[in-house]
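JOB MANIFEST
job_type = single_chain_structure
chain_count = 1
residues = 115
[input]
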Amino acid sequence: MVKKDRGPPPKKLWAYGYDITLPPEDERVASIQELLDREHAEAIQGARTWASRVVVEPQLTRILVISDSPDSDRGINRRLEAGLKALKAKFVVTVPMLVVDHEPAQALNGRPDRG
């Protein structure tokens, strides 16, 4: 049997989140989205993976992050957290988890789902 060369293995992706005590109608949520958009653009320029999606719930705003590193103490995270602190928003960061299927990262990057 001949093995096919499939190229390098896909890079590992990690998912973690920020749970923020801001209700969705709070105007500060829009400034958070602007910050996330800037951070995503910076990651692209640096050939890194860092994408986010804001999920609003009645009394809570969540930010889901997909990253190429489980380290949530990178510059990109420190700027996000500084922005949240400047807004006086209370938040917690979840533990990073390895993403087995890469589809969520593609969806966060605006690519259509294949399903």
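[summary]
Residues 28-45 form the longest helix (18 residues).
The mean pLDDT is 80.
exit_status = 0
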